[in-house]
Amino acid sequence: MARALRIWLLLALAGAAALAAALATGPSPIGLAELPRLLMAGGASPQAEVLHQLRLPRALAAFGTGGLLALAGALMQVLLRNPLADPYVLGISGGSAVGALAAMLLGLGALAVQGGAFGGALLAIVLVFALAPRALAGPGSAGRPQAADEAAPRLLLTGVVLGVGWSAAIMLMLALAPEARVRGMLFWLSGDLGGSEGGGPALGALALAVALTLPIARELNLLLRGPVAAAALGVRVGALRRAVYAIASLATAVAVTTAGGVGFVGLLVPHALRLVIGNDQRVLLPACALGGGTLLLLADTLARTVLAPQQLPVGVVMALLGVPAFLALLARGGRAR
Question: What is the fold of 60-322?
Answer without folding.
Answer: ABC transporter involved in vitamin B12 uptake, BtuC (1.10.3470)
